[in-house]
Each structure stands twice: as C-alpha cells, then as structure tokens.
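User: For a benchmark we're assembling, each entry needs the component sequences followed by a predicted structure for the full assembly. Here are entry 17's components. Please fill in the structure.
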Amino acid sequence: MTYALSIVDLTISFGEFTVLDKVTVNFSPGERHAILGPNGAGKTTLFNLITGDLKPTSGTIEFYGNDVTNTSTHKRIRLGMRRTYQSSLLFKDLTVRDNIFAAVRGIKAGRMKVLPLSKDHSDVIDTEKLIGRVHLKDVADKKVVDLSHGQQRQLEIGMAMAGEPKFILLDEPAAGLSPKERDDLVRLLEGLPSEIGFVIIEHDLDIALKVVEQVTVMSNGKIIASESPQEIVKNPQVQAIYMGTHDHKGNMHA
Amino acid sequence: MDIFSQIRNSSQWVFYLFGLIALLAYPSFANNFFVFQIGALSLILGMIALSLTLLAGYGGMVSLSQMSIAGLAGYFLALFGESNAVQSLQLAPIIAVPAAIILATLVASFFGLLSVRTEGVYTIMITLAVGVATFYFVQQNYVIFNGFQGLSGILPPTVFGTNFKDPVPFYYVSLMCAVLAYVFVVSLIRSPFGVALQGIRDNPRRMKALGYNIFLHRIVTHSIAGALAATGGVLLAWFNGFVSPGIVGVDAMINILIIAVIGGLNHPIGGFVGAVIFILLQNFAIDLVGSDRFRLLVGCVFFLIVIFSPNGLIGVGSKILNWAKKRPKASEDKMGMEVIKVDDV
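Assistant: Structure for entry 17:
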C-alpha cells in the first residue's frame, strides 16, 4: 500500500541532544490524524522535518511513494504537501486576497510571470473561490494586520488549501482562538474534501479528537501510542503524561 | 486583484502625466548644462539606483555591486562597439549595446548566485567584495581593460542625422530609458513575480512553504536589476565618453547606495529623486562648502535622512500628504463634527 506520508526511523540530533529518536509513523491518503504530546515532545520538529525546514540526522520520509528526505521544501509543496505554522507566518502588510493569491501562484508554473494578470485569469478566480471557502470574503481587502487572530488562522488554512493539496500539516491551528472561533475552525476542518488528509498538532483535545480518526501521542521525541480517539483517552500511559505522572523519559509511574 | 488595480484606479495618473510633461518640456527652458550635466546624469544614476531599489526595497537584498554591473556594461560596450580601444570589435551599436547589456546581466546573475543564500549584512559584505574584486579586475587587467587608464572614445550613435551626443537628444534617450525602466519596475512589483518577491523579502520561510523556489526568485531579481543597471551603465559610458576603474570603484558603489537611500527605497521613484538631489549637491555644494567638504555635506544629508525619514525623501513627502489628509477641515471642529453657525439655527 502506498502511504500518503511514510516516516521511517526519523531522527534528528543537535549535538548530544536527540530531539526526535527513530520516529516511525504512516499516514494513509485522506486520513485525518492528530499528534498530541506535551511541550517539547518534538511535534513541531517532526513537522519541520516533514516539510524540509530541518534536515534529519537519519531516517527517511516518503510522500506518496516519493522519497523526499533530501528534497527542498518548495518541491515537497509542489508534490501536494501543505502546512500551517504554530506562530502565524502571514504577510501582514498584504491584503487577505494577496496572501491567498501568493499561495495560489506558488504551486503554478507561472509564478515567475513578470506581467500583471487580468481579472478573468483562472488564478484570480481560484483566489476568489478560496477566499469564499474559508469565509473571509468580507475582509478580503483588509490587510492581515487588521484581522482578528481567528481570521488570521482561517487565512493560514486557506493558504494551505491553495492548489490541489493532498496532505496538510496543521500546527496548533486553534491556539489563541475564542470558543466561537474554535467552532468555526472545527466546521472548516470537517468541511475539507475527503480526499485531503491532514495531521493536526493540537493541545485542545476537544478539537483534536473531534476531527480525527487516529491519534499519535509523542513524548520526549518518541512515539508512545498510536490509537483511535476512543482508545487513546483510555490509554493509561497517555493519561499519565497528561496528568503529569511520567518521568522525563516518558515512562509512566505506576 | 486589488494590488493590480491600484495603479489603474488611482489619481496617481494625473501626477505621472504632469511629471512626464514637465520632463519632456525641461530642455525647452533649461540650458545645455542643466539638460546634460544635471538632467541626463540624474536620469542615468536614477536608473542604476532604481535597480538597487528593486533589489533592496522589494527583495530585501541590499547589493553594493549595482555600480559594478553598470561599469562593466560600459566596458563591454567599449570592447564590442565603437571606441578608441585597440581591442574593440567595432561592432555596430545595434549589436554592441544589446551584447553589452546581456553580458553584464549574466555577470549580475552570477553575482546574485554568489549572494542569494545570505541575508542582511552578509549580503552587503559579499556584494561589496565582488564589487571591489571587479574594480581590481578591470584595473589590473591591461590586456583587455587597459588598466588604470580605461577605455575611451565611447560615443553614442548618430541616427538619421541626429547626434545623440548632443545634450538635448541625449537627454531624451536617457529619459526614454528611465521612463521605460520605471514603468517596467512599477508593473513588475504588481505582477505575480513582484508580489512573490515582496513575500520572500518579508518571510522567506513561508514562501518556501507555499512552493516558491526563493533562491531562483532572488537570482532572477538580480538578473532583472542587472539589466536595468547595465542599461544605465551603457548610457553612463556614452555620457562620459570613457570607462575607467573609477567608475566601478568603492566611492561609486557607495554613491548609488546613498542616492537610493536619500530618495527612498520603498518606491521606484526614490532612486530618481535621490539622484537629482545628489547631482545638485555634487555640482553646486562645492561652491558653498568647497570640494574638500562635498562628501561631508552628502554625509550630513544622508545622516539626516536616515535619522528622520528612513523611507527617504519619498517618505517625507508621504508624511506631509498624510498629515494634510488627516488635518481637520476649517469647517470642522476638533471632534470632526461640522460647526454650526449661530445664524444657521
């Protein structure tokens, strides 16, 4: 079976300090998966390795059968991988429309075009459609700096949905959102086309468990459990981590 | 896209139209000195500074080697076209000019290749290093570049009986090139390429995660800026009639940076504004403070601009316009409410 994303023995060390230690995990096409774990567990580092922001010390990453371990970030994106960031990395001085437009053009061959596009160009139309899909039509002409935090998060997801994404990595999309904005986010994630898979890093278990089929729990750079949402909440090792009764190696204290 | 429609919808067109008419009419009320030494030279240096504005203002890459590219284009023109150089190929201008610009653009691409993986002060240092290397390359290479003496006898062509060395025709050639370069850059920064370039300036990591090859984008920007600087370099060679290592020296490199910063790096017009101020100071400040203190005066102007208006003189203009827009009208009180006269009640 070809996995959407297959990670085998992925390790990254900074000097003596091993941040990820032989992590192996597979994601199927269209799968919705959550990665949980305390701060410092290595979740965002795993994302950074998957997208190519960091180079692994050892291990392999395959995306739809292609070995992308040493592939540059922009080429992974063009293969259909997308991500959002924990801290917003939007272009604050550009409008919502221009941010989405930059994302739409990023995966197109015409990204180097030096002449402005006409209003009926397909990329301009795609930009408008995407703005509608993430419910930002009313603020399309506003600069990002003038948006609420929740709207910025919606925009992040909108940018990740540009083109034809196959798999999206969502890094704490609900961080700092109000209860209403969280509900909007859940609806947005649930409304994603079924063929688009995603992995979500999220501290809010209500959100994470609501929108995924599978949960992986990490601690101290290792995977300690990978089960369904119903099973994971009963897992004593996971309960121990979240109740704070594990040692620094992730082992549960009885 | 709103970013594209801004220029079409804006009243800036009126400003541009009046500006262009003034520039076209300038030779009719200025003498040859002002047309050639002030007008044409400002347009040429403004074009070279425009190339730096594109790189630094819109791409976040402060390059000191733009004058090196311009100077090399002048050298290539002397070597390919008609000049006194014994090694000159004496080709017709219609071949020599494009060949000089293309070759200088390739050199700019190579300089870009060397510098695009660096950021901030390291980009400045690398481009300074390649600029200084260019200076010593042309100064010490007697066989091709004639060392310290350089190459002379570089004259603009005569077309249909019009000698483009004459001040007024040369001014119009410079104006045409400057206007085309300006319009191209304004269009470029609103194009998909330009929007992406500004994204790369603001957040390269994010742009990579959107599928952009940021290094390729930066190298292409160096090539485009190189072509602009090279065009300015060809005009500068015609203006001077010669090229020598001094044209690609550190002083000349720094002058372009000063021009761009004085004018303002956040708008394509900035380079031209800075060039006019610089050339006026260069020509007339000497009468006030003496030739020894000219650089001190330029330094003071540079210092004041950096301290009080980091966006250059364009920034000062924007601040005044914003202040004028925000200022309450005479018929409104401080709360923005219309004042009702007692007689009206």
